[in-house]
Amino acid sequence: MAKEMPSSNMFQDVSREIWRKIIKGLEKLIKFYEIGNLIISFGYTWVLRRISRRFLKGKRILEIGPGPGNFIKLIYNPLKYDITALEPSQSLAYYVKGKYPNVDVLLGVAEKLPFNKNSFDCILCIFSFRDFFNKKSFLVQAYEILKPTGLLIIADTNNAHTLITRILIGYIRALGRILSKVMLLRENPYEYLAKSIEIMPSIENIIRLLKKIGFNTIRISFFASKNAFILVAIK
User: Fold this and answer.
1) Is 6 within the bounds of a domain?
2) In total, how many domains does the chain have?
3) Contact criterion met (CB below 8 Å) for 158 and 227
4) 10 lies in a domain?
5) Which of 6, 56, 155, 204 is the most exposed place for a label (fewest CB within 10 A)?
């Protein structure tokens, strides 16, 4: 049973307005998402996805916020995995379903998980956790719907509050403006990526919250001078 949720001052989440703009931005980037991410991240998103899949266990897999399905592409094997995807964007949900017909794609948000308790062996947040507008609510619900000894895997960017982080965020904004012009977009969707990184909760607060919720073991690996991480929490 999940423990009492800690006080709200531990986390600063993205606002609903920024969240909506992030979703709209992702919809515009469907065709360019992977190449844009590779350029913006110097390739670390490609690397972290492939490292994250090594932690998978069991058959029932839930990915929250799959976007255009770049991680699903790596693990799509109907004989090995029973994959469910929860996606807040209707156009992205249809896109993923069209590419991966054996994936059960549902329209919904991380803050309201429409699943029964003890349903999944693994829950994945692959570069989506930073965009949630109520991370505490998601983590409490994730604990409930994981099977005993199930895994929560979060791979994401991290605000390490260093000079390198500030340079990285400035680089994302500047390069995003260039890419937006190349892709003939009226607005720079990468601006909201930069904002979501700026207000990302500290890793210490995330781990503290996971322990209070009830997760037994938490493992964290850092990459890119601590500006990216993979976290694995065991129920």
Assistant:
1) no
2) 1
3) yes
4) no
5) 204
DSSP 108: -
- Bridge partners of 63, per DSSP, are 85, 124
Which residue from 12, 229, 26, 25 is spatially nearest to 133, judged by alpha carbons?
A: 12
Tokens 């991290």, residue? 158
Contact 27, 92 (CB under 8 A): yes
Give the Cα-Cα-Cα angle 159, 154, 109 (nearest 5 degrees).
Answer: 100
Assigned domain for 30 exists: yes
CATH number at residue 30: 3.40.50.150
134, 111 contact by CB (below 8 A):
yes
Average pLDDT of the residues in 99-111 = 96
CA torsion 117-119-120-123 (nearest 10°) is -40
| Predicted TM-score of the model (pTM) | 0.89
Q: Is residue 184 domain-resident?
A: yes
Q: What dihedral do alpha carbons 13, 47, 63, 234 form, nearest 10°? A: -80
pLDDT tens-digit map of 20-31: 887 877 777 777
- Percent pLDDT > 70 in the chain is 95
